[in-house]
Amino acid sequence: MAQAGFGEYEMTRPYDSKRILVTGAAGFLGSHLCERLVDQGHDVLGIDNYFTGRRANVAHLLGKPNFEIMRHDVTFPLFVEVDEIYNLACPASPVHYQYDPVQTTKTSVHGAINMLGLAKRTGAKILQASTSEVYGDPEQHPQTEEYWGNVNPIGPRSCYDEGKRCAETLFFDYHRQNNVRIKVMRIFNTYGPRMHPEDGRVVSNFIMQALTGQPITIYGDGSQTRSFCYVDDLIEGMIRLMNSPDKVIGPINIGNPGEFTIRQLAEKIVEMVGADAELVFRDLPVNDPLQRKPDIGKAVALLDWRPAIALEDGLSKTIDYFRLLVSDRRSA
Ligand code: NAD
Ligand code: UDP
Ligand code: UDP
Questions:
Q1: In sequence order, what DSSP letters do the residues of 118-144 get, joined into one string?
Q2: Distance (Å, whole) CA 235 – CA 127
Q3: Could you report how far apart the first and last alpha carbons of the chain are, in Å?
Q4: How confident is the model at residue 1 (pLDDT cuts 50, 70, 90)?
Q5: Which member of 30, 79, 116, 203 has the lowest number of beta carbons within 10 Å of its beta carbon?
Q6: Residue 26 lies in a domain
Q7: 174 given a catalytic annotation
Q8: For residues 289-306, b (16+ Cβ closer than 10 Å) or e, as one string?
């Protein structure tokens, strides 16, 4: 007898489609992931507590027979029947995750325990959206998965960094102790349409500032580096990792190895928006990593994945998205 599904779609579900749970579904990455999985014909259940996510991000999916979304906080148990779980729930921008740091750690740690408990009971495969922040302010450059990191356990970023590190520990212990099928993905800075315009991350900040005629705020002297991955590339890597053989458990870096200083990024965005914006310099936040760039050798070898979208092309799509958002706000 077929296992119970999510609803009426179960009756007509394509033979090879799966019942997939996405936590953090109304967020930036979650909404793009749901879109891709729904397009592939899977039966997708999104959950979100709407802390940083927005209903508008998934509004276009609501009429589809193979998508549903439910308000739920991952720090509480959840009982559903699923084949795969993508665990993305967690605020990702420093401004948002430092707003309620205790809740941030709870989301990573209690959320991981609940989703791993669910995976253990159902036999589902589970992917954790971990982060390059597990490397902290790295002393190794570029960062390989073998590097253990340089993280301050008691600073303002620790609620996020240590929460994510503990979640990785839980994933590996559930794998060793309970044979849960795990996939741990270390995501490096990713950008694109549906980023929250006020989340304080560098790409959204600079584009919003350039579009609204405000000065571009560079923290520190702008010589710190980041590598920026366009969202479509990231989602492709995430799905490839989930679909890889069970022995591929990670951790695996997914990001774009192109490295830019924050000042270069500011200048590029100002030029592309065509703005006449002034660059202003502000204090560097505490424990702000000086450099970050993924070594993606494992992703290339194990997933045949590499980013395909150049920074300029990705920025152009992202600027179009924010331009529309700003004009909608002006006419509202
Ligand atoms: P986001 O803030 O847009 O999305 C996170 C989503 O999780 C939001 O919809 C939020 O409402 C939801 N959420 C938060 N706490 C929750 C809880 N307790 N229960 C249920 N839902 C909750 O961020 P994002 O950029 O889409 O990031 C998604 C995931 O990817 C996060 O786990 C983040 O740590 C990870 N990640 C993202 C990046 C990046 O550059 N975007 C980099 C590294 C890791
Ligand atoms: N859990 C859940 N959904 C399930 C199964 C478990 O949310 O379908 C939660 C459960 O409430 C528990 C956590 O996952 O708090 C860990 O479950 P596990 O079975 O590993 O531990 P135990 O229940 O023995 O504490
Ligand atoms: N940053 C900046 N101006 C801003 C926002 C961020 O110079 O308006 C810097 C920030 O200090 C950091 C880099 O840009 O060095 C990336 O910041 P973000 O918050 O996007 O991500 P993370 O620090 O988590 O990589």
A1: HHHHHT-EEEEEEEGGGGBS-SSSSBP
A2: 12
A3: 52
A4: very low
A5: 79
A6: yes
A7: no
A8: bebbbbbbebbeebbebe
**Nearest CA-CA partner of 38 in 186, 191, 235:** 235
CA of 202 to the centre of ligand 3 (A): 5
The pLDDT value given to residue 332: 79
In a domain, 5, yes or no: no
Residue 308: how many other CB atoms lie within 10 Å: 11
pLDDT per position as a tens digit, 281-295: 999 998 899 999 999
Q: For the full predicted model, state whether its pTM sits above 0.85.
A: yes
Per the structure, how many domains does the chain have?
A: 1
Of 190 and 286, more confident:
190
Atom of ligand 1 nearest to the CA of 96: 2
- Return the structure tokens found at 130: 């971990």
How far CA 36 is from CA of 44, 108, 196, 272, 323, in Å, comes to: 10, 24, 20, 28, 24
CB neighbours of residue 51 within 10 Å: 19
**Of all residues in the chain, what percent are helix, strand and coil, respectively (each to 5)?**
40, 15, 40
Atom number of ligand 1 nearest to Cα 72: 20
Smallest-distance ligand from the CA of 47: 1
**Best residue among 21, 22, 29, 318 to mutate for probing ligand 1, ranked by most atoms within 8 Å of CB:** 29
Q: Is position 102 within any domain?
A: yes
Chain segment 196-249, per-residue pLDDT in tens = 999 899 999 999 999 999 999 999 999 999 999 999 999 999 999 999 999 999
> In this structure, what are the phi and psi dihedrals at residue 222, rounded to the nearest 5 degrees?
80, 10
Quickly tell me which residue has 């609803």 as its tokens. 7
What residue numbers bound the domain in which 45 lies?
15-331
CATH number at residue 71: 3.40.50.720
**Digit-coded pLDDT (tens) for 5-58:** 555 555 556 667 999 999 999 999 999 999 999 999 999 999 999 999 999 999
